[in-house]
Amino acid sequence: MGRAGQYAALLCYLVFLAFPLFWLVSSAFKSPQELGTVDPSWLPQHWSLDNFRDAFDQQPLARSALNSLIVACSAAGISVLIAVPAAYAMVRYRSPVSKAATGWILVSQMFPFVLVIIPLFLVLKNFQLINSLFGLILVYVVWNLPFALWMLQGYVRAVPASLEEAAAIDGCSRFRTLVSVVFPLLTPGLVATLMFSFVTAWNEFFFALVLLKSPEKQTMSVILTHFLGDEGAADLGPLAAAAFLATLPSLLFFALLQRRLVSGMVSGAVKG
Amino acid sequence: MRRRRFLAAASAALAAPSAAALLGGCAGSGDDGTLDYLSLAWQKESMEANKALVAEWNKRNPNRKVRYVQGSWDTVHDQLLTSFEGGEAPDIIHDEANDLTDFAHGGYLADLRGLLPAGLKQQIPQRSWDMATFPDDGVYGVPFVQEPRVLIANRKLLDQAGIRAPEPERPWSWPEFEEAAKELRGGRTFGVAWSMKEPVNQSVNLSLTTGGAVFYQEDGKNVVRFDEADSYVSEVIHRQVNKTRTAPEGSLGMGGSDTLPGFFSGRYAMVPLNFSFRQQVQQQAPDGFEWVTLPMPAGRGGGAGTDAGGGSGTGRAAVQGVSPQTLSIAQDTERKEDAMAFIAFMTRPDHMARLAKGDWMVPTGTEALRDPELNTARHGWRTGVHMSSDLRASPVLGVRGYAEWMDKIATPAFQEFYSGGIGLGELRDKLVEDGNRILARYQR
């Protein structure tokens, strides 16, 4: 395949990926009549903000977005803070325990949500953490942690142990070695794990649905279902508008951090 | 330096929400004596009506306030099941009678018999109370709105084909309906589009029009049968899709909303939908599009036989099964009297009519049904109100194991049958033999 073919394939792939988002944005600005037509236009014939106004009128979108942001940022941050030293220890200090822990991480990913939800509900209830954003954050941290650990292990393993030995010969303490040598090299891994944890928590629906009952505590993923009725009926315009708004933080998060993902890949790897 | 700034900023960004969350979590809503009302209202007018009534109640009753909690039709069963198991269920629950059976059997819902005020009991006909009466004759919900399935038709196409729209008082028989669909078929236009993404409820509920029920009681146990009266309507649909081609096969995989664009473009002349879909039709229809709400075809409604479809024109009945929306009280609630007082307030005739209008549905109360705004030809309201006296409890109400039968057996079997993948005999075998094995497990 020539270069032109590669570009064409890449373009097709990009269109394939971007089309749902494009259609969502287009639908968010269409009138109910345009949404109900059998020959939809690519772009709205009459751009309108009515769907956004209706979405905000009908549901507490701003509040739910703030809740989602609090929960997703906190869960992502705490997961990474815990996962970094744990992953480092599991890679650098190989033992039967670390092997068993790695196996357990894989097994834990196979549990379906419905299997754990009722015991989890009862545990959180005992700690009075039902209907609490903090309770939900704890759940997300626990749920994200295995995968975050799994991801970070790969990045830690990619850091040559010889660099740490060199730092030690140069007189660096263990802590200084971690801060000055290892962590900078882990930046892309940290960013990737942070993104993964953030997006998982931002999109999560079932735990949020079950654990948060007050309208003022509910997250955006739960609020989106309120635009759906029985037997597949849907308030399509406001739903599209709200769904579009719900995708923005993830997009912004990626836009802000993706450069860090790439630039950190080689920083500090070569000693001059 | 830049890296340090980045890490510091990231730490601060992460720490601030964490702290806020901790504070928020600690504050919690707590038990401040407010009753939680889980509402499934989702249309704008319906939510406005519910919220306005809750506000009015709270103004009048500052010592027994109610908090409006928004739920969702898609997820209400899972949400309630977990809440019941965890002892954290909302005090007042809006749901569908269809969904109450297992909760009532599980002891999660309060039996309302000793709580119902006489006025409320009298204003709702017994046939509606039957729809929320489950094990041991307990009443587990107040049925307050319901909806028949109706035919929404393109007025222009009916006129062009010279077809007289049937009046609510004299619906088409099933053979007349099939004939009308044939006359409306032409070019790219199909006579009718059956949206069968969820085929079971409508197949079972419409079987009542021809004297069927699918679910029967034998020796005190629920059993499935699929005899001629039960299968008549399903055969009509199968015939229209596979033989006369008056209905498109493509619509079988659609939900109700999915058929509307084709309906507006003239591709489908009629769409059988729940009564409340009129709201979407009215909202999405292009300017100048004329639509009309027709009653579903009627059959013998009680007498099976070769003429179950009501072809002779005698003894025709428009009965069909429905599962009304209900208001229930959680068994764990300590303030059941307060919860019932709120339900009685919400279902006062004028309030019930207001909620019904918001939902584009039909109220169950006899006095609410007399509301002038519901007795008008505009948007087909009169058709629904007239049909309300012919609505009966869906045969699936109170049947334990129905959900499993529907998911594992009936949904795929009906979908295969309607698309022509299997014949009537095979459908019957699956529904009855496999189905009864499931029901038996729940009735040991």
UniProtKB/TrEMBL annotation, chain B:
<feature type="compositionally biased region" description="Gly residues">
    <location>
        <begin position="301"/>
        <end position="314"/>
    </location>
</feature>
<dbReference type="InterPro" id="IPR006059">
    <property type="entry name" value="SBP"/>
</dbReference>
<feature type="region of interest" description="Disordered">
    <location>
        <begin position="301"/>
        <end position="324"/>
    </location>
</feature>
<keyword id="KW-0732">Signal</keyword>
<protein>
    <submittedName>
        <fullName>Extracellular solute-binding protein</fullName>
    </submittedName>
</protein>
<feature type="signal peptide">
    <location>
        <begin position="1"/>
        <end position="21"/>
    </location>
</feature>
<dbReference type="Pfam" id="PF01547">
    <property type="entry name" value="SBP_bac_1"/>
</dbReference>
<dbReference type="InterPro" id="IPR050490">
    <property type="entry name" value="Bact_solute-bd_prot1"/>
</dbReference>
